[in-house]
Each structure stands twice: as structure tokens, then as C-alpha cells.
Amino acid sequence: EIVMTQSPATLSVSPGERATLSCRASQSVSSNLAWYQKKPGQAPRLLIYGASTRATGIPARFSGSGSGTEFTLTISSLQSEDFAVYYCHQYTNWPRGGFTFGPGTKVDIK
Amino acid sequence: EVQLVQSRAEVKKAGESLKISCKGSGYSFTSYWIAWVRQMPGKGLEWMGIIYPGDSDTRYSPSFQGQVTISADKSIGTAYLQWTSLEASDTAIYYCARLGATSSSGGWFDSWGQGTLVIVSS
Fold it and tell me: Which of A19, A39, A59, B67 is most buried, most CB within 10 Å of its CB?
């Protein structure tokens, strides 16, 4: 099973600052990686798929990069509504195998 | 607009059975895989399993194989997650989510249900 790790566990950022979140896979997942935003009491929201493609309606301040085992989600200028938990998700084995999520990075207000 | 609407919260006792639902609308229900994802209190997201409503092809995470059953009724556009004997450790929020592509090349989840809270008391 491919294991996903995310760092840091918590990131404290001031509004307007840049946030950089990392996700690492235990083996190559090519570009088969997605990012989600999760707020308390809400469903996860797809931000990025294919490692770098923004989902429909996602603001340009969100960007994804990386391939293989190292990935980054960057929020260029944090807005108040961006404070949330962010999960990465690999799907490289689909449809032969399943999916795994990272443990999440919480972005909170500094 | 794609929508996945889940059944209401449930409070059950350990040993009871339960079936929760996820109704899809705004798209061709039979053409997209539907997954179930668990979030235990204070924890992250875990993929449980996935079903293709068109032919009921179902895959399970090894962690959940034998613990739950996933099914779908394509005539009413609804997917289900069921337990025959709940345990306190099943207390969690359960989300259904649509796979974002009809082909095998896309494995991201582009639409999510609002979640169903399941509380199991011992």
C-alpha cells in the first residue's frame, strides 16, 4: 500500500501570507495526486487534481506542483476562508487498486 | 448541478444494523463511480470502498473488506453503505463522493455528499 505523509502537521500563517504545504508518497504516484480542503462541518472540496490542475471554480491563488513522490500545494495569499485542513490523495493504482489520503495539514491563523 | 445528498444522522447501539444512503442527481448516475470515505472524530479521511452503479462492480479497501457492504440501486440513483453489526468504533462521519472521471484514468473525487454522522453507543 502506498503511504502518504504530509508536513507540517500544523501551519500557522497570517492572512495575506503565502502557505506552502508538502505531501510525500512512499513510492512514485506519477502525477496521480489530488488536494482537498476540509472545513469543520463541511464536506471536503476538491482543489487540485493531476498534481497541478485546478478544479472548476478554484481561485488562482491555489496551485499544485510536483510529480513522483514529492508534491506541494501553495496558497499564494491566504484569505480568511482558506483556514482549514488540507489533504492530499493518491490514485495511481486506480482502477487496479484503491486510494490513500495523507493525514492532513491544518492551516490556522497566526 | 451535480449533487450528492446523504441520509440523516443516525444514533444506534452496538450490535445493531444500519444502512445509510447517498442520492445522486444532476448527472448520469450509472456512469460515475461512487466512493465512501470515513472520518472518525478528530481524524483524517479514509477510503472505504467504491461502486460503479452501472453494473454494481464494487471494490473495497482491505481495511474495510468484510466490515461493510456497499451497494447501489441505479433505478433510483442511490448508493448505500451498510453494516450488519455496528461497533462503537464505527462512530464517524461517512461521506460519499463521486469519482471525477468516467474513464479509468481519473481517480480524484470531484463532488461530495454533505456527510452522515453515525454515532454508536456501547
Answer: A19
